[in-house]
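Example record for the data management plan.
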Amino acid sequence: MSVVFTDETRERAREIIARYPADRSRSALLPLLHLVQAEEGYVSPAGVAFCAEVLGLNKAQVGAVATFYTMYKRKPTGDFLVSVCTNTMCNVLGGQEVYDTLSEHLGVGHDETTADGTITLEHAECLAACDYGPVMTVNYDFFDGVDPSTAVGVVDELRAGGRPMPTRGARLCTLKEMAVQLAGFADERDGAVADGGPGEPTLRGLRLAQQHGVSVPGFDPNTPIRSKAEADKAAAEAKAKAEAAKPAPAEASAAPVKGGDGASAPTGVAEPAKAEAATGSTAPDVKAPDDKSPQVRTAETRQPDAGTAVPDAPGTKVPADGSGTAPEAGDARSAEAAGVASNAPAGDGKPAGDEAGAQERNLTEAKAGTDADGAGPADANETGAQK
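Corresponding structural encoding:
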């Protein structure tokens, strides 16, 4: 069945995509999947096609992401997703008993929905709240320290049309309403975030800090987060201030430094033994370039140019061919540049390696092999595989 998404959903989709750089629009896929789930209650084939359409992807790429994360449901889900933690800690504390009781009480198993479409039950591997175990969540809001009796009371109230208050967090909403929030939009219900509060285990660290007078020097919770441009400007100013505060370098001594043979060494050149004692290595001190990417910097460290590498510098090895001759300076950098040029990154609309030219070449070679020796299709395929 074809689903036409509302104009509001399409407008929100454009707003989500606008949050990301133009050449990184694929990053909007996760919130877009939550958005289509907010309209249909799950990520349907139509939702996958919608995300592929607005992002310029193919449906296989979108489906691969939608099937990877358990928060994206691939079949209709109830208004309230009840997740019970059955992992180690909660299991020891009774989590499995809670799940088994709910399963029997509701008449459904894992990832199944009650006949009235209200509750979908699932067991969760971990809900990241071990200090509150056993825990369960309703549309990702926590109910802490539950037992079979309290868990049954929560689902019965939900089926009766009530909204039990979570132990921590805001008041409950439906799964579709929660999906809108996960897509990055505020909860517009009146007083939606007015209730709830933190739990005692969460506050334990804060209370200990207050008790022992532990605080972060100069911490101001109202300090705004600076933009990248502001941060770069502040860093440049701090660097300039530090450079200005450095003492002027001492002038080289006019007295000549005697070499091992008694001859005078050039003025201003330190004795080799003193240089080694100061640095702990015979490798020259080279300032790390700030404008190079970490990948380029790592490659140059592992494969330095023969003209600049020091043979006994820690972590370096001057490469040599079979004749024992070191390559000319710049070979490593040239090889790396050639490798980067021949491996263009994949775009948002096409996965890496999907090259039509390679496919056509393989088909041509297979056909040519069949025509030349009369081999059948199986033989041609085998020949192509060997090639």
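Summary line stored alongside the record: The chain has 15 helices and seven strands.
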